[in-house]
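Chapter review: from sequence to fold.
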Amino acid sequence: MSVRHLLAAAAAPLAAFWLATPAAAHVLVQPDPVSSYGLTAGRLWSLVAALLGLAGAVIGGLALARSAGRIGKGNGRRGAIVALVAGLAGAVIGGLVVAAAEGGPGTGYGIVGGYVALVVGLISTVLGGLALTRNRRTAAPADR
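The token string follows.
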């Protein structure tokens, strides 16, 4: 996978999120009480953010293991960058859901999922950052 394809794959979800943010902010404000089992817009956004953060955490863990030389060939640099981007996107979306929520847990605004997305997104970002720094440390002596 070339760097151009990697950047395009990382930029597409962020561009869709950027375009959908005003509409999502309008939909997140719900005047009517909802059932505790319905899938509301806030719950959907928090679910998407949590899954994005979880995917980033898995990719970041694999990149960290790859940069340590435990699995596979390669250095895990791409995986580390993907984990950083996915974790950051998940944390930002989760933060927006938490900021837009007007009620507590069970009101349909997705506040619990937003907090989960924040935590998982930050974990993904940390794993990607660790893999990237480990990759730089192990690649530096070979370049000399």
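Two observations follow directly from the output. The chain is about 75% helix and 0% strand. The radius of gyration is 18 Å.
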